[in-house]
Design a protein that fits this description.
single chain; mainly alpha; 2 domains; two-stranded antiparallel sheet; 6 helices
């Protein structure tokens, strides 16, 4: 497949027309969040998968790691597997998060709160004025007992 065939073929799809109409511009076919050329070469074409939104979608297997919808309801749409804690953190940081939010401790994604997580409760003024406990020096020890033994 050469570039001219790819460009002519993808521009003739209903997805391309729908995208231009919806966003007022052509899609970025060089977007790193989706590999349109690899998808096209593999024979993948956009289709309407969700009858409720009636929009064309490309298969998820060609999404890039930075795709905004890579993780949907706790599932990695590229692999089809539930996301682990590393995926959760990578997804949060890829979306521009500055500080990693606390994990819920849920074993399975369906037990976890849907993304994005709700904001934490407001702290009272007396909580803000309490001193923080001292932080032990970084010694490489994993447990406080090891810190005491090394001294």
């Amino acid at each position: 497949m050469n570039e001219e065939e790819f460009q002519a073929g993808i521009r003739a799809t209903p997805w391309f027309s729908e995208f231009k109409q919806q966003y007022g511009e052509e899609p970025n076919l060089n977007d790193p969040s989706y590999d349109y050329r690899r998808a096209w070469a593999a024979g993948a074409r956009p289709d309407v998968r969700d009858p409720t939104d009636k929009q064309y979608h490309w298969p998820s297997e060609f999404k890039g790691a930075s795709h905004p919808n890579r993780f949907v309801q706790g599932v990695d749409t590229i692999t089809g597997r539930p996301m682990g804690w590393r995926d959760y953190i990578a997804d949060f940081l890829a979306r521009g998060g500055g500080q990693v939010p606390p994990l819920t401790g849920a074993m399975y994604p369906r037990e976890a709160a849907p993304y994005p997580r709700p904001s934490p409760p407001e702290l009272s003024s007396d909580m803000m004025q309490r001193p923080l406990p001292p932080v032990p020096p970084l010694t490489g020890a994993m447990y406080p007992k090891e810190i005491k033994r090394r001294k």
